[in-house]
Specification:
alpha+beta, six-stranded mixed β-sheet, four-stranded antiparallel β-sheet, 9 helices, binds ligand DP6
Length: 350
Amino acid sequence: MEIAAILNKPFGWRCSPNIAIVKYWGKLPGQLPASPSVSMTLDQSATETTVWFTDRLKVVEFEFDGNPAPLFAARIRSYLESVSGLLPWLLQVGVRISSRNNFPHSAGIASSASAFGALALCLADAHKHLGLVDGQQFYPLASRLARLGSGSASRSVFGGFALWGETPSVEGSSNLEAIALQPVHPVFNRMHDMIVVVSDQKKQVSSSAGHALMNRHPFAGARYEQARQRASLMPDVLAKGDLETFSRVTIAEGLGLHALMLASDPPVNLLHPLSVEVIQLADQFRLQTRLPLAYTLDAGPNVHLLYPEEMKPEMDRFSREYLAPLSGTVKIINDFCGAGPQPLSVQNND
Ligand code: DP6
């Protein structure tokens, strides 16, 4: 291994956030999940990160949107220390990182998954360049590195649908890294995610504090069992194109996550009155059209409406007619199921 092979060369990746279908909520020591989760990686929203390794030993510089961001640099320094067991050469270099999101911070899209996904891919790329990981193990390594930054990031290094967490019926599943779920029926190939942004306020509760609430939650055991059961259904649901079960599970998980938070000690209410309004409109639409519109929320107030390409005309109508009374108070971001991360063209490190 010749460290000079990676010095002062750009390693750049684009990575998208994901929306959880089966939620990761509750963790074990070592940044391991208390139960398995499944998500869909998005396409349009993305973080683009480029990393240069320098000979300025252990110096970590981080710029976001072209501006130095020393607060983030401190978090990234401790992250890089935490992955140096997997990437020992990190102890022999300095790191300069430049990152940007193509979605506004105020969009209310969780960015830790795409941020750590993109950074982990750059690190795994350098590891590959040093001849320390082969093509087959590249994405598993990137997923493992991403997980150590943010659990949900482990799923963003795969396109389509990914599962993270040991699930006995799913071969290859692991708590250490996510895997891509395949095959996927064509009906899920271009699944849309219409994100109804009802509030762009900063999160009231950090993910870590939220997960910690599960450590002493009276329903924790039942919740983890429920997540295990639902995660184990997903390979079959995705392979068969079972939209009914998909929407039933997706809705139950989004509402269930907030129910868990409301039943925590202390209780946490991240719902906005408009979140409830959008959910009720989606329920009315489901009842009136009998279409399998799915919706979900992560640990925030914004509602994700998930639907297959075939429902696009009906959903355009939903947006025009149902959401119209809320226009001016909500913002809509249209995204869809993505093919997965891409190396940035700045790369000339071959
Ligand atoms: C509600 O991955 O943000 O979005 O591992 O502490 O970084 P950390 O937590 P994070 O938690 C995500 C929680 C969730 C559900 C999910 O994405 O599965």
